[in-house]
């Protein structure tokens, strides 16, 4: 009888998921999900995961973007190293180009409010700025590309103008994109969190 009840409950939950949105959602253990894939010898990375992931999760919620996506981008872009720098000038946890960083700060109305909300996390202003601007930019890209996560990820890496140009020329976007595959792989790992 219990088995039948649970089958009916699961089926009902799946059918009416939108109607049950008022129920509290269980918080994923994002740290645990990431740590399961960090090699045991990477002790410094493990420390950084425990330091950054909970804050990234909260920032993502504040900015209405998937924490899975934000954490996956941090993982791929910097491997949780706040001092990361790229050959082309991108820097920080989410490897944001200086020009994009400045544009996002000027555009984002709630930037100072979100920074002040997370100052008690113990992270530096720069670390918070990286995560806030990166999450904001990902959300902006998703909106630009009609909530298409894959196009937003490719645009984060290649630039939104490049993606728009490819689309307007009827060229495939993301079919053989190594960056997209890496981020999607990490999203899958993170999505497995309980």
Question: Could you describe the 3D structure shown?
Answer:
By secondary structure, this protein is mainly α. It has one domain (28-191): Lysozyme, CATH 1.10.530.10. Helices cover 63% and strands 0% of the residues. The chain contains ten helices and no strands. It has helices at residues 2-15, 30-35, 43-62, 67-78, 98-107, 111-118, 125-144, 149-158, 160-168, 178-191. Helix 8 (149-158) packs across helix 9 (160-168). The two termini are 27 Å apart. The model is unreliable at 1-26 (pLDDT under 50).
Features of this protein?
194 residues, mainly alpha
Helices and strands in order:
Blueprint: H1 2-15, H2 30-35, H3 43-62, H4 67-78, H5 98-107, H6 111-118, H7 125-144, H8 149-158, H9 160-168, H10 178-191
Look at the structure and give the CATH class.
Mainly Alpha
Average per-residue pLDDT, rounded, comes to 85
- According to CATH, the fold-level topology is Lysozyme
Contiguous helical run count: 10
Task: Characterize the main sheet.
Answer: none
- What is the SS-derived class? mainly alpha
**Terminal Cα separation, in Å?**
27 Å
Number of domains: 1
Q: For the CA atoms, what is the radius of gyration?
A: 18 Å
Shape: globular
CATH architecture: Orthogonal Bundle
- Low-confidence stretches at least 5 residues in length (pLDDT < 50)? 1-26
The SSE string, one letter per element, is: HHHHHHHHHH
Beta fraction? under 5%
């Amino acid at each position: 009888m219990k088995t039948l009840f649970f089958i009916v409950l699961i089926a009902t939950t799946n059918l009416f998921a939108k109607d049950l949105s008022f129920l509290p959602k269980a918080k994923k253990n994002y740290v645990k999900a990431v740590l399961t894939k960090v090699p045991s010898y990477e002790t410094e990375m493990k420390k950084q995961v425990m330091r950054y992931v909970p804050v990234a999760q909260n920032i993502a919620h504040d900015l209405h973007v998937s924490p899975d996506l934000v954490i996956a981008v941090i993982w791929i872009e910097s491997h949780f190293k706040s001092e990361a720098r790229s050959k082309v000038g991108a820097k920080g946890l989410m490897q944001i180009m200086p020009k994009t960083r400045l544009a996002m700060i000027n555009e984002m109305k709630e930037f100072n409010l979100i920074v002040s909300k997370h100052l008690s996390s113990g992270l530096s202003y720069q670390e918070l700025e990286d995560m806030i601007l990166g999450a904001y930019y990902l959300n902006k890209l998703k909106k630009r590309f009609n909530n298409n996560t894959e196009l937003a990820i490719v645009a984060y890496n290649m630039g939104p103008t490049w993606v728009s140009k490819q689309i307007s020329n009827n060229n495939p976007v993301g079919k053989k994109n190594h960056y997209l595959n890496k981020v999607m792989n990490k999203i899958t790992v993170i999505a497995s969190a309980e």
